[in-house]
User: Fold this.
Amino acid sequence: MSKNSSLNISRRDFINGCALGIAAGATLSPMELLADRTVAQTAGPYYPPSLTGLRGNHAGAFEVAHSVAWQGKKWRRPKHQTDELYDLVVVGGGISGLAAAYYYQQEQSQTARVLVLENHDDFGGHAKRNEFNVGGKTIIGYGGSQSIDGPASYSKEASALLKSLAIDTQRFYKYFDDDFYSRWKLDGALYFDKRKFSQDRLIADPFRDYSDEPNADHSATIRKFPISQKAQEELIGLLTAPKDPFKNLSPSEKRNKLRSLSYIDYLQQHLRFSKETADLLRDRSVGFWGVGWDALSTLEAARMSMPGMEPFAELIESEYQAEDDEPYIFHFPDGNAGITRALIRQLIPQAVPGNTMEDLVTARADYGLLDQASSPTRIRLNSTAVDVRHTTDESKVDVTYVTGGQVHRVRAKHVVMACYNNIIPHICPELPTTQREAIAYATKVPLVYTNIALRNWRSFAELGMDHLTIPKADLHQTMSLDYPVSMGGYEFAKNPDEPILVHATYAPTVPDQGLSAREQHRLGRHKLYQLTFAEFEQSLLNQLDGALGRAGFDVERDVAGITVNRWPHGYAYEYNDYSDPVNWGPDNGPHIQGRAQIGRISIANSDASAYAYVNGAIDAAHRAVSEQLGRMT
Assistant:
């Protein structure tokens, strides 16, 4: 790897991806840059999906909200209304917000006036679309919410919404190339980075599909790990001869014991394993929970079939109900941005041409048509709400928002708050104290989804690898080839000589300090805000070079672009039985009180469902609109 590779790729990313330009970025503040972007929304070149560099919660999207929540700033409310009267204003343009706008128009009329305010420069919230041009070919990826998980279990409302958007999940059985991995003989691997271990080493991952083959003898593989012999023996014993240190306890006593212990404590305190061994397994839960096994229970480890949990299998069998066994294949090339684009197509048909789920993939959204006075629905990007309150007679709601550094005030008959839940107490002064406290309990899970556009994936094919797990990583903890989905004229890479996206993930944690998941999420969020694109990029290039260099990979030659989707406010918080009451879940917990209707204001977001999935966002939208329709006068 060239010493200057990071600098060169950074420069390429900024020149090719950022509409603002280097010179402007060097002299303007984030708010001034935001003002430029706001003006550009009506111009032809404005197309956020093609921007590279540091995206997700990008500069310009969060400064106004932070001025309110962190600094207590009171933005001046315009004395007079600066916007027209709307039937509904939605704060937040993610899946939940756009679904709320759609439900409202379906229940009221297609001519109902709806304004959606979104603080980012693109619609979709976490359902983010990333595009790259590699050798004249457009490569599409997901920068956030990734798949329609388990659609057979969706509520009737969520299922009906997908159907009304012409999304038929059964078609993904045709579009997802399920034979891709076996055809190219690809599997998972562990990358031991020489910065944390004695050497760079790439070894088959004995833990990846462990639940499919428990007790398999992976001794030969583990003996290749660059760790001490003691740690090797502990891992081999865990995988081949798991023990039950609580065999004398009754089932109920055993369940309570496993719930009270983190999996890491179980390994170290009850199996007497070394920290070296525990560290190798600690972060394998971050992709699901946003924290490692130091903050999750051993009972949860049993549910997720972690190594050594076979003795407790019967203990958790009663928790599972019969349900459709659906594969994880319901995935647009741009992830759940496909759903938000389908919603935009329904709300503003001319903005996203076409009428099928297939032509959604390659349809180019016209951002200049999102906020037109002639349209019943308007999507206003780069706009952050700073004050939401009822009028004196409580017949309307005033929403004050900032866009381009200017303060505006719009009035609506109804408001749906589909934004980040924890900002609501800071901008809705009418919230009761008990509701504020209920909202404050949970906090979003910070995470980073990074897409690396490669000109080819020969190195992956030569190494027989599609997924890379990196123990004890400082930043990205996993890397994998993108999902093999071809549909609507969009073709996934047919062979290793074609361009492809590598998807890397990072969830910032603060492990081994006795902190709960919520505490780690809050500290991890602050860590994310301090990291620069250059730091993410250099770490990625080092990892790619160390893992793939032996197969001829060259970062200067093979990397075409990088988009780091940083989400300090990422997944909705889901209760876990190690640090939260065991009876809390989507149907019970402080989020129920936190989402209570406040007159003409209702709350809709996945936070309010305590469920970080598409159907959680959709169901919240349906509930919020139903609340408001019950108040129609």
The radius of gyration is 25 Å. Residues 1-39 have pLDDT under 50 and may be disordered. Residues 5-59+127-148+176-182+443-571 form a domain with the Polyamine Oxidase; Chain A, domain 2 fold (CATH 3.90.660). Residues 52 and 563 are 5 Å apart (CA to CA).
